[in-house]
Amino acid sequence: MIAATTMVAVPVSAGAAVVDLVCPATTATIGFAPPLTLTPRTTTVTISSGVANLCLDTSGQTPAVQSGTFTGQLTTTMSCVTAGNTPGTATFSWNLADGTHANSSSSVSLTADVAGEIVVTGTVTGGRFAGATLLGVFDVTSTNALNLCLLGQGVSTAALRGPLTFAGS
Description:
Layout: E1 19-36, E2 41-53, E3 56-57, E4 65-78, E5 88-96, E6 101-112, E7 117-127, E8 133-141, H1 145-150, E9 155-167
Antiparallel strand pairs: 1-2, 1-3, 1-9, 2-4, 4-5, 5-6, 6-7, 7-8, 8-9
C-alpha cells in the first residue's frame, strides 16, 4: 500500500562502485495515469518537480554539482500494492558550483513495495556521470492512499522523499 514509511539505509557492499554523487535531500511528485487502484493495470508513471539538494559530488569533475532538478516517465503494470519493473527515462539538470549547468539522461526502472517505498534504479546514458548507476530509495506519502485504494477511487499523485545516489561513472 502506498503510505508513509521510514527511510531505509542502503548498505554499500565491499567491491561496490565508488559513489560519485549523493543527494540525501531529494524530493519529487509522482503521478499515476490512470490512478492506482487495488487491481494491477497499465499505468503511466510521471516523475515531476524533482529536486536534488545538499549534493556531495566526489566524482572529481569540476565544477562540482551542488543541486539539481529532474523529471522522468515510464509505463508499467502497477496497483496500490504492486509495481512492475519496466524501463523508462529520466533527465537531470545539475546546478554547478560556478553557476553553470550540466545535464544527464538515463534509463530508469521503478519498483515498489507494500510498505510504501519506491526504488528507482538506472544507468546514466549521456551527459554528466555517463555510465554511472543511479539509485533512489524513496519514502512515498499520499494523503488517504489506503482509503482511496479501498474505495476504488485510486491514487493519482504522491510525494517522494529520500536519497539519490550515482556511482561508477
